[in-house]
Amino acid sequence: MNAVPQERRVVTALPGPTSQELQARRTAAVARGVGSVMPVFAARAGGGIVEDVDGNRLIDFGSGIAVTSVGASAEAVVRRAAAQLADFTHTCFMVTPYEGYVEVCERLAELTPGDHAKKSALFNSGAEAVENAVKIARSYTGRQAVVVFDHGYHGRTNLTMALTAKNMPYKNGFGPFAPEIYRVPVAYGYRWPTGPENCGPEASAQAIDQISKQIGAENVAAIVIEPLLGEGGFIEPAKGFLPALAAFARDNGIVFVADEIQSGFCRTGRWFACEDEGVVPDLITTAKGIAGGLPLAAVTGRAEIMDAAHPGGLGGTYGGNPVACAAALGAIETMKELDLPAKARRIETVMKGRLSALREKYDLIGDVRGRGAMIAIELVKDRRTKEPAPEATAALAAACHAAGLLVLTCGTYGNVLRFLPPLVIGEDLLEEGLDILENALADL
Ligand SMILES: Cc1ncc(COP(=O)(O)O)c(C=O)c1O
User: Fold this and answer.
1) Closest ligand 1 atom, CA of 263?
2) Does the beta carbon of 287 sit less than 6 angstroms from any atom of ligand 1?
3) CA–CA separation, 148 vs 18, rounded Å?
């Protein structure tokens, strides 16, 4: 069993010589459109550490973009996936079904918000889940329009590119995009013109007004929103925004879809981020953290909505692959056993304490926000104008990387440094990672 020592170790310049050799092969063989945050090649990973092929051990504040919440080699995930691999790798659920798929759907019905009858369908990627949520909502309502939000991110397939807000790098040159997608404002408290305290009510009124006047509520199949926006900059919609939109959807026969692909499965300190304001979505999309690193995604929701699509209308060759389902059952077991929602809340306390102190010290940090182990700082050139500081953000990330801390950036303006450690990270590594960030800020 792979047990990666839980300590940072930097023994070469990063990337080291073996990574550099692999990078040369990669450049020759892999399309340049597929990027990497850090050109160090992984050898093994687990807990809060990624070890590279040169023997360097990096503190992981990225979790492979919010995936390895239980760690990248969690015992229950490896054990169950390995046992399933030995039994069979694939039959295709659409040809001959198997129990693991059904069991994952049962767990999803228990864990997702709301006590109504629920059903699920399984897919391979987050984007595929979002696409299918839209198909299901259109099938159920007989309507076509889909409402999405400023700063939203939903994937890289044709429909999900249309749902995604940011042009570079996700959309530029890849059009034409799918029709009947409408974007409305989101409650971005830090940048709301009349201040964060007015943001929830004002932004929801604006969004609802635009939907009513520009699209017509009766034409809208679905409102699709991330309850805590991910790629767009870890934006927590100001209080009141999500409940107001959910109520508007309910009153107008619109399917309310929570995209919890990044925020779900304990990441924000609850099983799902929408629970924070008691919002019960009609459909919820999940992926990433669900299966401890294996590719799996789901749409879960009200049974009558999920059953609107005709038999054969949903699916895919690999959707709900048996090894991925076994891994998901192992990941869910781990989340329950280790009480990972509580671990995420503890990470929030530690991180926000340190980051808020840094905000007092450095004007560069305009905002500290997020929940659980989904925390970010937004960097600005001037606190008054809030002009984004993408260059400083990139420099800070590079300094962290050089010191052996894996961090990611995000945000429509490229000025958000985000922290997504595995929920199982040790507190010593968490503090050490924050020390590295603090030193990097001081040097900047
Ligand atoms: C909120 C959200 N939706 C959808 C996706 C797309 O998921 P995938 O990359 O698995 O297609 C992502 C990925 O980052 C996401 O964060």
Assistant:
1) 1
2) yes
3) 44
Q: Do 176 and 157 contact (CB within 8 A), yes or no?
A: no
Could you read off the pLDDT of 62-101 as tens digits, one per residue?
999 999 999 999 999 999 999 999 999 999 999 999 999 9
Contact yes or no for 267/276 (Cβ under 8 A)? no
- Token representation of residue 139: 């099938």
Rounded to whole angstroms, how far apart are CA atoms 233 and 418?
A: 8
Helix (H) or strand (E) holding 45: strand 42-46
Centre a 10 Å sphere on the Cβ of residue 362 and count the other Cβ atoms it contains. Answer: 15
Task: Give strand ranges (E) for 265-388.
Answer: 283-286, 297-302, 365-371, 374-382, 387-388
| 285 CA from centroid of ligand 1 (Å) | 10
Distance, CA 130 to ligand 1 centroid (Å)?
Answer: 9
CA distances (Å), origin 200, targets 205, 230, 235, 240, 294: 9, 18, 13, 5, 37
Dihedral class, residue 147 (left if φ above 0, else alpha if ψ from -120 to 50, else beta): beta
Tens-digit pLDDT profile for residues 239-264: 999 999 999 999 999 999 999 999 99
- Helix and strand numbers (H, E) in the chain are 13, 16
Closest by alpha carbon to 288, among 256, 317, 266, 316?
A: 266
Find out whether the beta carbon of 424 lies less than 6 Å from any atom of ligand 1: no
Residue 29 corresponds to which amino acid?
A
Count other C-beta atoms under 10 Å from residue 228's C-beta.
Answer: 24
Nearest CA to ligand 1 atom 7: 126
**How far, CA to CA in Å, does 94 sit from each of 127, 309, 318?**
20, 15, 9
pTM metric for this prediction: 0.98
- The DSSP letter of residue 310 is P
